[in-house]
């Protein structure tokens, strides 16, 4: 517990004590003092309210005492808003078995302890400076909607949401999260019992948010869509986001993505015609083996800005029904990029015609970040003509007139290199050989 939390807890305890004593000394409303309905708006009446709306000034504490739990036992909707601090019974509102919807908004701090609302179906938290969320306890059997907006969360701990919750929707909108621990969000989404079908919005959505770190197994989504939109994710561990039985597909759009591995976002099983959309993102480091783009599932990788990637395994590892176009890659003299761009010139006839055609299309439909408006094919031509990376190129081996495949030329047939070109030449041959081996193995496995 931080010093800040200890201070606030101490202040709440003292104020609760003096507030209760003061109310009783004034002889207000019987022997138990003032009820929550003397402080909050209760409808339709103060005896058996169905809705309670507590709106305080930010300099005032809201104290919910043990004797208030009987009044709250019939409440279905509770709003806590604009309070400087809220003091709730340490044991939670165990008798509030009808309380299904809770809204918390416009506070500096709110601490949700496990078991606070045992029958909760919907929690909405908006404009909270710091949310401490310990988990839902018994409400994991009833929770259906979780919405966080314009809120800061230092840490989502293991067991925050468990697979037992019959979720419909989880939304993070303009939320800042420092860390999502392993096992924090273990989410299972279920169909609407009224019609047996899921609406398109069902699943886990993150929009306009910042998440600094997601540990392995931090987010698991079963039978629901995943949408991460216009957000910043600094560090995604291996297996950070796992989708099992993806319904509604997976969309990563308009994000800034930092450190990640090939399986940082991965799918185990798919449902129906679910597809993958990865578009408009900025990748600091794009994994060449990104799992979402290597399956037989239709996928789009469009309009992304990629700072660093090993182009050879990335381009040749794309699944057969993946559309990759209008992406911008770093074009420089790194052998990891030069080698694959010049593959046809160095090893003419190496690839099967359909592979060669697709490779040519990828080079024609994707671009360099710099020079601007230059396709990968155009940059390859600059390399061949030694306009780009002069002094760091292989002498080009001209493609044969015959369309039949030929064996790769030996090093003895290559023209001599000068200066520091030897290392680059070696890297090109090694990479191309690796690609050739990969293609042969793939063809064998298919046949």
UniProtKB/TrEMBL annotation:
Residues 398-419 are annotated as: Disordered. Residues 400-410 have a biased composition (Polar residues). It comes from the Eukaryota. Keywords: Signal. Residues 1-23 form the signal peptide. The keyword Signal applies. This is Uncharacterized protein.
């Amino acid at each position: 517990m931080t010093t800040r939390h200890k201070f606030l807890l101490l202040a709440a305890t003292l104020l609760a004590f003096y507030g209760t004593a003061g109310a009783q000394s004034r002889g207000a409303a019987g022997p138990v003092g003032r009820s929550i309905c003397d402080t909050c708006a209760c409808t339709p009446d103060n005896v058996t309210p169905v809705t309670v709306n507590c709106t305080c000034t930010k300099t005032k504490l809201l104290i919910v005492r043990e004797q208030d739990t009987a009044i709250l036992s019939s409440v279905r909707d509770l709003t806590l808003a604009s309070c400087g601090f809220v003091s709730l019974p340490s044991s939670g509102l165990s008798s509030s078995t009808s309380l299904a919807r809770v809204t918390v908004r416009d506070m500096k701090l709110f601490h949700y302890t496990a078991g606070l609302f045992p029958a909760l179906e919907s929690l909405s938290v908006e404009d909270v400076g710091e949310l401490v969320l310990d988990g839902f306890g018994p409400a994991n059997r009833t929770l259906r909607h979780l919405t966080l907006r314009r809120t800061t969360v230092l840490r989502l701990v293991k067991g925050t949401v468990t697979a037992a919750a019959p979720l419909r929707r989880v939304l993070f909108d303009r939320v800042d999260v420092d860390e999502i621990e392993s096992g924090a969000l273990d989410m299972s989404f279920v169909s609407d019992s009224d019609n047996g079908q899921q609406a398109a919005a069902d699943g886990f959505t993150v929009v306009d948010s910042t998440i600094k770190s997601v540990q392995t197994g931090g987010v698991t989504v079963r039978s629901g869509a995943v949408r991460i939109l216009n957000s910043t994710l600094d560090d995604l561990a291996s297996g950070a986001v796992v989708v099992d039985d993806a319904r509604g597909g997976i969309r990563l759009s308009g994000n800034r993505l930092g450190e990640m591995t090939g399986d940082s976002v991965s799918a185990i099983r798919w449902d129906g015609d679910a597809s993958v959309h990865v578009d408009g993102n900025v990748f600091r480091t794009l994994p060449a083996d990104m799992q979402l783009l290597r399956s037989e599932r239709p996928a789009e990788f469009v309009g992304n800005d990629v700072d660093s990637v090993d182009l050879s395994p990335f381009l040749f590892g794309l699944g057969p029904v993946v559309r990759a176009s209008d992406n911008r890659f770093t074009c420089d003299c790194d052998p990891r990029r030069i080698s694959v761009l010049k593959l046809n010139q160095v090893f003419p006839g190496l690839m099967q015609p359909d592979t060669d055609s697709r490779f040519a299309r990828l080079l024609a439909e994707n671009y360099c970040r710099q020079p601007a408006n230059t396709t990968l094919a155009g940059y390859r031509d600059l390399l061949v003509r030694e306009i780009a990376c002069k002094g760091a190129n292989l002498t080009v081996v001209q493609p044969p007139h015959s369309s039949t495949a030929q064996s790769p030329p030996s090093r003895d047939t290559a023209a001599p290199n000068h200066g520091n070109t030897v290392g680059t030449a070696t890297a090109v041959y090694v990479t191309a050989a690796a690609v050739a081996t990969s293609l042969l193995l793939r063809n064998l496995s298919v046949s």
